[in-house]
Amino acid sequence: MQIETITTHPYNDQNPGTSGLRKKVKVFQQPGYLENFVQSIFDSLHDFSGKTLVLGGDGRYFNRPAIQIIIKMAAANGFGKIIIGQGGLLSTPAASHIIRKYNAFGGLILSASHNPGGPDEDFGIKYNIGNGGPAPEKDTTAFYLRSLNIDSYKMAHIEDIDLDSIGTIQIDDLSIAIIDPVTDYAELMQSIFDFNLLKQSIGSGYITLLFDAMHAITGPYAKRILVDMLGATSDSVINAEPLEDFGGHHPDPNLAHAKELAERMFGPAAPVFGAASDGDGDRNMITGSNIFVTPSDSLAIMAANAHLIPAYAQELRGVARSMPTSQAVDRVAACYNIPCYETPTGWKFFGNLLDAGKITLCGEESFGTGSDHVREKDGLWAVLFWLNLIARKRQSVADIVHEHWQKFGRDIYCRHDYEAVEMDIANGIVEHLRSQLPALPGQTFGEYTVKYADEFSYEDPIDGSISSNQGIRIGFENGSRIIFRLSGTGTVGATLRIYLERFEADASKHDQDAQSALAELINLAEQFCEIKKRTGRIEPDVVT
Ligand code: G16
Hints:
Blueprint: E1 3-7, E2 21-24, H1 25-28, H2 33-44, E3 52-57, H3 63-76, E4 81-89, H4 92-101, E5 106-110, E6 122-128, H5 137-147, E7 152-156, E8 167-171, E9 174-179, H6 183-192, H7 195-203, E10 209-212, H8 218-229, E11 237-238, H9 259-265, E12 273-277, E13 284-288, E14 291-293, H10 295-305, E15 319-322, H11 328-336, E16 340-343, H12 351-355, E17 361-364, E18 368-371, H13 379-393, H14 397-408, E19 410-421, H15 423-436, E20 444-445, E21 448-455, E22 458-459, E23 466-467, E24 472-476, E25 481-486, E26 494-504, H16 514-517, H17 519-529, H18 531-535, E27 542-543
Parallel strand pairs: 3-4, 3-5, 4-9, 10-11, 10-12, 15-16, 15-17
Antiparallel strand pairs: 1-7, 2-6, 5-6, 8-9, 12-13, 13-14, 17-18, 19-26, 19-27, 20-21, 21-24, 22-23, 24-25, 25-26
Helix pairs in contact: 2-3, 2-5, 7-13, 10-11
Bound molecules: 1,6-di-O-phosphono-alpha-D-glucopyranose (G16).
């Protein structure tokens, strides 16, 4: 195999965010841009000669050419085997599972998740380590530092690989395996959930369902598992064909973007259960007939009912949530007397806790839930968890949620996003917030007295690493919170996220609309951060 060393010049913007490097496709298409980042990753890793790399993506525009480039670079850098999903497709949780199952050294996942796709939209790449999880911060920092002074990358002279034919190709010492992207993952799901019960419940018509794959990666997975294996009707999976531009939509599973699903779930004759996943299949949105379940509530409900799921029946070791996620799961953990960890935003922070066996379930407000079965959040896993719960409890989604609130109280919650804010304005807002923190504790605003006001910093209980500046928290005496963070996944300007949360113990008030129930906190948030005043905007771009 002939290997060429190609001279390059560094780019200064390859600092990975919350989940890998995400940029516009046009940025990735600059000469050497993708190559620099991949070489920076390989240069920062050690002892992978002859080992296995897993490679696949969510099928968005630029997925295939990027895979061909990465194959040549992985070959030139000495990997012994590359496992690739057929068509270059692998959902993020499936990639995580395949890395673990086949003892791979690591994997490269090509996705910008819920961001739109197409020639003028977004692309992304992230490296996952041998435990199947996103590279921790010490690694992503090393990739970035390397990218700042890289001067060459290596490419092997091999023909483009046929990504569509399953089988193994041998080129000198390198073997390239094109595998079915779904089979291993489907088997894993079968080992976690009660597929017989699910088949009965779906087959008998007790559970009717609608799953929106949003023209993204989960289409083939949902068809195989929900339709072929569990017997759901074929029209139960909509937008099932992965498209390079996701049909021109945002593959973002929320009520605004999963429009068709939302209309049917809140319309007449709604199915019992409805769900959607995102571009790369790791997020989930859960709905029932006429009810939307917030991701924070979903995590808490899963934790409270985990004993009903075969894989978790024996033991729930502990739970974890990202800091901005509501405290609903904390109440379950306290009731069950199990540990509850609070981590910064980003799935990578759960990895050490999962590896150390400290937690079984974890989740985030950003439509992510998962368990120790892989090291990524997992959209279809969450769907199957809920289906299994409905089948076991013989209750509707609404009844399950209300019963949970009655027992634990309701953490009324919402998030307001202001997108594509000018960087200077966003930084000004953060500075303004910071400057107020020391004086806030003890001050009273209406029914809210500030208990603490700080910037979240996390010390990893396993490796002792410290991650600072992970969001501004203003907590009140009554347990309510307002949190401000700049997103680490956007590609245009800055996105300010405002997370609002208030606890309601009184069951007669559980059916309130979140925006009205949180109105006073929403006003307070504006008073603190002045986003409307400073940008002239009148409302958030997205409310979830
Ligand atoms: C990624 C991360 C999540 C995070 C989310 C939002 O999800 O994996 O841990 O919660 O981004 O991050 P931010 O608030 O910084 O935009 P995904 O699904 O986009 O990979």
